[in-house]
Design brief:
single chain, 4-stranded mixed sheet, binds zinc ion, Endonuclease, Chain A, 4 strands, 157 residues, alpha+beta
């Protein structure tokens, strides 16, 4: 109660806002996590694999990232600011480069990477949840098939 009042009187500073944007437990990641949980999907939050995905299905090696439209340079929502333009374009380029490196590292370990823009999570949450659910289902079906085939191989030899 007291906190809320204070917030109203003293809005967040610029750096506090930035910290919130960067924070793991705010905004679109939380929205997606809650929706997946409601859909019966059970995931790990920020597991210790390359890139610390926002969430992951460790058993079937599916990593999910929610990319901020500002930080990752979404085509629809990122407008290069007029001031400090080169700082921003370099920062976005670095973030994208890092994204590719993380994808390569996860791919090398046999992971599938799913990336969504925050505007997709906010604007079309049901579709994002459906895609993740389908990827997990597909991966589990593959896993079961490989397991069965391995079992057959063992029996026939
Ligand atoms: Zn966007």
């Amino acid at each position: 109660m007291q906190r809320k009042k204070i917030r109203k009187l003293y809005p967040l500073t610029k750096s506090e806002q930035m910290a919130r944007v960067r924070g793991a437990d705010t905004g679109p990641e939380m929205v997606l996590r809650r929706a997946l949980w409601r859909a019966g999907l059970r995931y790990r939050v920020r597991p210790s694999v390359p890139g610390r995905p926002d969430l992951a299905f460790v058993g079937c090696k599916i990593a999910v990232f929610v990319d901020g439209c500002l930080w990752h340079g979404c085509q629809d929502h990122y407008k290069p600011p007029v001031t400090k333009a080169s700082f921003w374009s370099e920062k976005i380029a670095r973030n994208r480069q890092h994204d590719r490196e993380v994808e390569n590292a996860l791919g090398a370990l046999g992971w599938t990477v799913l990336r969504y823009w925050e505007h997709e999570v906010e604007g079309d949450l049901a579709t994002v949840v459906d895609r993740i659910r389908a990827a997990v289902a597909r991966s589990r079906a593959d896993g079961a098939r490989i397991f069965r085939e391995a079992g057959r191989k063992v029996r026939s030899s």
